[in-house]
């Protein structure tokens, strides 16, 4: 078992082996800047009410919600970790990658603009399929649901519910928009190595989001060789045996743990803001890695003027 600079073994986490003790953080949340239901300010207000010390805003393919979130966090006394969620591909499968602790948001936003254009193109293709299948949902209705944020399948689903073509959000995915369903259109592939490089250039660390059973030691080893920094251990979809499996893998590879609720602002369902009780210690370890890289970069720049 590896040991971080704090002297606490990576596997010795109270939320996995006994009574959970705060303060807690939540390192995956979403706002109306992408497919969340609540504005960044309201998400921060909810974090304050949940007594969270910090949250990461990790909207899909955009950092546009961060300025508002950071301002609200300063006012409310909740730390905001700048983040993003990227859809990537690795070994023929889609993989979601979080970028956390980014410092160069302007450069990252410029790079992500192309992804947002791709999201609109994909949504248009799915709407066209739905129209041919007799569901007259429009792109105007979908974009209204997105309200200027990065458009995605949840916005199509909400437009379908509003139009009365499905009775609830989940039905839209189960019948039409989920992987393998009639209106599903795969995203343009973005290699995981490129995503890792993009986040590192922006000064952040990469986190494999909600990997579930896919987080075998062999696969995590291959990703670590590409520069993966952390794996999401705590996630609503991870039962205890999966959490322990991931911890064992990252302990052996000396990479970091992360965790979050993946909250999109809804009051129902199994995702609840702060519900994963992610320990502050995990955030401290991540920040230590970021700081060490910044120090190394400054020293390297000083040595090679």
Summarize this structure briefly:
The protein has 305 residues and is an alpha/beta fold. The chain has helices spanning 14-17, 40-49, 66-76, 105-132, 139-146, 153-163, 169-177, 192-201, 217-225, 240-253, 280-303, and strands at 24-29, 54-57, 79-90, 93-100, 205-208, 230-234, 256-259, 278-279.
CATH architecture of the largest domain: Alpha-Beta Barrel
**Proportion of helical residues:** 40-55%
Largest sheet, spatial ordering of strands: 7-6-5-4-3-2-1-8
Name the beta content range: 5-15%
Overall pLDDT confidence = 90
Which term fits the overall shape? Answer: globular
Instruction: Specify the number of helices.
Output: 11
Distance between the termini: 40 Å
Gyration radius from CA atoms, angstroms: 19 Å
Counting structural domains, the number is 2
CATH topology of the largest domain, which one?
TIM Barrel
Low-confidence stretches: 1-15
| Alpha-beta classification | alpha/beta
Name of the CATH homologous superfamily of the largest domain: Metal-dependent hydrolases
Largest sheet: 8 strands, mixed
N-to-C series of helices and strands: HEHEHEEHHHHHEHEHEEH
Which CATH class of the largest domain is shown? Alpha Beta
By DSSP, the count of extended strands is: 8
Provide structural commentary.
The protein has 305 residues and is of the alpha/beta class. The protein has 2 domains: 24-109 and 191-303, Metal-dependent hydrolases (TIM Barrel), CATH 3.20.20.140; 114-177, DNA polymerase, domain 1 (Orthogonal Bundle), CATH 1.10.150.650. 45% of the residues lie in helices and 15% in strands. Strand 3 (79-90) and strand 4 form a beta hairpin.
């Amino acid at each position: 078992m590896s040991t971080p600079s704090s002297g606490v073994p990576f596997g010795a986490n109270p939320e996995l082996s006994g009574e959970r003790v705060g303060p807690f953080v939540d390192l995956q949340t979403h706002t109306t800047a992408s497919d969340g239901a609540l504005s960044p300010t309201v998400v921060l207000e909810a974090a304050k009410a949940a007594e969270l010390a910090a949250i990461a805003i990790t909207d899909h393919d955009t950092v546009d919600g961060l300025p508002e979130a950071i301002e609200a966090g300063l006012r409310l006394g909740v730390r905001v970790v700048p983040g993003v969620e990227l859809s990537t591909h690795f070994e023929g499968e889609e993989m979601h990658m979080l970028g956390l602790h980014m410092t160069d948001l302007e450069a990252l936003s410029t790079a992500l603009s192309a992804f947002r254009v791709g999201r609109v193109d994909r949504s248009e293709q799915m709407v066209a399929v739905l129209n041919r299948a007799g569901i007259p949902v429009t792109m105007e209705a979908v974009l209204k649901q997105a309200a200027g944020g990065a458009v995605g399948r949840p916005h199509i689903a909400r437009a379908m519910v509003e139009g009365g073509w499905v009775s609830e959000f989940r039905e839209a995915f189960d019948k039409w928009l989920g992987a393998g369903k009639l209106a599903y259109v795969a995203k343009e592939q973005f290699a995981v190595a490129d995503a890792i490089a993009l986040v590192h250039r922006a000064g952040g660390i990469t986190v494999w989001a909600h990997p579930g059973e896919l987080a075998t030691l062999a696969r995590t080893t291959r990703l670590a060789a590409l520069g993966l920094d952390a794996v999401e251990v705590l996630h609503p979809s991870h039962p205890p045996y999966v959490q322990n499996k991931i911890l064992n893998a990252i302990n052996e590879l000396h990479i970091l743990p992360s965790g979050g609720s993946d909250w999109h602002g809804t009051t129902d369902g199994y995702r609840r803001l702060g519900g994963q009780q992610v320990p502050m210690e995990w955030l401290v370890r991540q920040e230590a890695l970021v700081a060490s890289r910044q120090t190394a970069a400054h020293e390297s720049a000083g040595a090679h003027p």
